[in-house]
Design brief:
Layout: E1 24-31, H1 37-44, H2 47-50, E2 53-60, H3 63-71, E3 77-81, H4 84-89, E4 99-108, E5 110-115, H5 116-120, H6 126-135, E6 143-146, H7 152-163, E7 173-176, H8 182-188, E8 193-197, H9 200-206, E9 210-215, H10 216-219, E10 224-231, H11 232-237, H12 239-257, H13 262-269, H14 279-286, E11 289-293, E12 296-299, E13 304-305, H15 317-328, H16 338-345, H17 348-353, E14 359-360, E15 364-365
Parallel strand pairs: 1-2, 1-3, 6-7, 6-8
Antiparallel strand pairs: 3-10, 4-10, 4-13, 5-8, 5-9, 11-12, 14-15
Length: about 375
């Protein structure tokens, strides 16, 4: 299939940043996940260059590495779990460092996976997992993995466990692993399950080492998943470039959301230096249906979203869910003005000042 001519690709009319006379090099980190697709599209289809940016993408093994490299200024920006900018600003598992996000890059896209061994022993949902946990409480704790303590994955997993009467802090052991190490640990039996983003849940299911009892859309539909994160100093010193970066990724997210572009997106993401899966496999991860395993396949049209009306980061109900998740993770945040804290971290003014006016279906404007 021929590559699309950039001149024929539809992008919404967007005004361009001024005073970017030469490309500005920006180092952007990512982890091998399907929802990193907007970064790949923006790089390959010339969208970063369109905004006068020279973006260097850097694949990292896990989220702690991404955070540390960003704080040490080995990266200028990164795609991260949405709670990370707030957690890093508050000094949760790191030195307190003011970080900001001007863009929500995706929603959903995660799944809980349990081992096939658990299925064979009668665990088919959270209620039967509760029975198994109770039956083995004197001998062992089941070990479940997530990708980062302060991530939607951890919040989703804990909420799901609580829905079945399982105390995630006492009845099971929750550990942290890089996303790419989930399947091998599940296969080896060092963990009994995990919560991660695509392609790793589908990889476990297709390799018949796991099955999924629940996904993002089953537990918390539309939750904010990935965000663009920078240090506050980058936003202050290089504001114009930050705005241009946000504008380019909005454009890329709109492109990724269009089903007509799914094959191109899958091809760009499948590269061995990116997600490192076959193009057909990534294509299935992007499709509007999800294979839960054990013969259960269901339509999930909003399982993973890149642009549903807006990528604006602000203090709406979705971002309040982050506070709920932090509290459920033992980090109750006490502050006199929660709204001000959210606004200082999730900087909607970066989005609002991004050089773009997007018309969606002829009505919505951002």
């Amino acid at each position: 299939m021929e590559e699309p001519d950039l001149k024929t690709i539809y992008f919404p009319r967007i005004s361009h940043p001024k005073n970017l006379s030469k490309p500005a090099s920006i180092r952007v980190g990512f982890v091998s996940l399907v929802d990193s697709a907007p970064l790949f599209v923006a790089a390959d289809l010339g969208i970063f260059k369109k905004y006068g940016l020279d973006v260097r993408l850097s694949r990292e093994v896990g989220w702690a590495t991404v955070r540390d490299k960003l704080l040490n200024e080995e990266l200028d920006a990164a795609q991260v779990p949405c709670p990370m900018p707030l957690a890093t600003t508050l000094g949760l598992q790191s030195l307190p460092t003011n970080c900001v996000s001007g863009l929500i890059m995706s929603e959903g896209g995660n799944a809980i996976v349990l081992s096939e061994d658990l299925w064979k022993r009668g665990v088919h949902d959270v209620q039967s997992l509760k029975v198994a946990v109770s039956n083995t409480r004197y001998f062992r704790k089941y070990v479940l993995a997530t990708v980062y303590p302060y991530s939607a994955h951890t919040f989703l997993l804990k909420d799901w466990l609580r829905s079945g009467g399982i105390d995630p802090d006492h009845d099971v052991q929750i550990v942290t692993l890089p996303p790419s190490q989930m399947c091998r640990n599940l296969s080896a039996g060092t963990i009994d399950g995990f919560c991660a983003g695509e392609p790793w849940p589908s990889m476990a299911i297709s390799n018949e080492i796991g099955w999924s009892p629940a996904t993002s859309i089953d537990i918390q539909p539309g939750h904010p998943e990935k965000a663009l994160m920078t240090k506050e100093s980058f936003d202050h010193d290089r504001r114009e470039q930050h705005i241009a970066l946000v504008a380019s990724l909005i454009e890329a997210a709109i492109y990724c959301e269009n089903p007509a572009n799914r094959k191109t997106v899958a091809r760009r993401a499948s590269d061995r230096k990116r997600v490192n899966c076959s193009e057909s496999f990534v294509y299935e991860c992007l499709s509007p249906r999800f294979n839960y395993g054990m013969g259960r396949i269901e339509e999930r049209p909003r399982f993973m979203s890149f642009h549903i009306g807006s990528n604006r980061s602000d203090g709406d109900v979705a971002l309040e869910w982050i506070f709920h998740g932090l509290a459920g993770n033992g980090q109750e945040i006490h502050c006199s003005d929660r709204s001000s804290l959210i606004e200082s971290v999730f900087k909607s003014d970066v989005y609002d000042n991004a050089p773009e006016l997007i018309q969606l279906r002829g009505s919505a404007q951002f």
